[in-house]
Amino acid sequence: MTRISTGMRYQQSLTSMQTRQASLAKLQQQLATAMKLNTGKDDPVGAGTVVGLDRAVAELERFGKNSDVVRHRLSMQENVLSQAGDILGRINVLTIQASTGTMSDSDRKTIATEIRSLRDGLLDLSNTADGMGRFLFGGTQDGDPPFARSGAGVAYGGDQTQRQVEVAPQMFAADAKPGSEVFLRVRTGNGRLDAGAALANTGTGQIGSFTLTDAAAWDGGRYQVEFGAGGDYIVRDAGGGAVGTGTYKAGEAIVFAGLQLTITGSPAAGDTFQIGPSETRDVFATLDGLLQALTSTPTTTAERAAQQNALSSALRDISMAENHFIDTRASGGAQLAALDQATELRSALDVTLQTTLSGIRDLDYVDAIGRFNLEKIALEAAQLSFTQMQRLSLFDLMR
């Protein structure tokens, strides 16, 4: 037999009203915040999922900031290299002018003054700061200017590292290249071969042209053409072994080991010329050598030939440096294109994440308002029932 007391009926009614009020308060909070998940207890599983998705969205934002920094630095690299190319273009024009036979020593020294100023401008460009407290061409050691004048030329204080920055999930973009790759490791000659005359030559022989005629026959080694009396010459390999002989005729190609070398002028007995694989040289050393040649004062035909050989060599190396800057700009352009792809990927991922988050966290107003009205009616009914119950008493049945 179940006993029903007045206290029990009061407690049941109060519990019902409190439950309705709590439900109504929860719906009011959801309507006010436009979110159906305000605390973890609302949906523990959904709340855990939301935390993970929020982290993924925050990571995309971080990738976006990384991308902005890299894009800024790569754009600055593009501008710097464009200016550097203009400088080398001007130096190339001046060097061609200095190579003409109508130029006097005074004229060449005047040209050297302008080239010296252009060289200093190029050094300033190599120490460009990115506007964020870092230097563009320092690699990862970019807290200080990477290049500085020294007794031996220009010294590099950065490192060889090119940063790889994550700009989208598992997608990386390369930062600006270290200065060692941009300004120091520039191929000489034509990029594959280089040739030059010995400084001790006493004749008027000058390097005309050099080409690789048979890649299969060339072993990649360095060779030397030695002139004797009467224009006879011997071609020797790096070990000193003779690989060819002949009699020199001005402008006629000397062919050996898959290579072809043309010399103009009149080499003297004992003069030597070298040809072999291209090496690397920093652009500042090339310009310093050019300045040395321009400021020299040749008095003999041999000294004039040596000056012309130095100017011709500088022209070839400057041309290679211009191409090197163009290649570096192309590499930076490819990275900028990769950043555009990363932006598209981040945008697509963000839409997916935000859609998923909205489905879990955001409130369906139509459904929430409907439930709010139902809960409000239920609460009013419970309050009315409680009011009616207050008027009743078991004592009324005993009268």
From TrEMBL:
It comes from the Bacteria. Residues 4-141 form the Flagellin N-terminal domain. Keywords: Bacterial flagellum, Cell projection, Cilium, Flagellum, Secreted. GO terms for molecular function: structural molecule activity. Pfam families: Flagellin_N (PF00669). Belongs to the bacterial flagellin family. Gene3D superfamilies: f41 fragment of flagellin, N-terminal domain. This is Flagellar hook-associated protein 3. It comes from Luteimonas chenhongjianii. The gene is flgL.
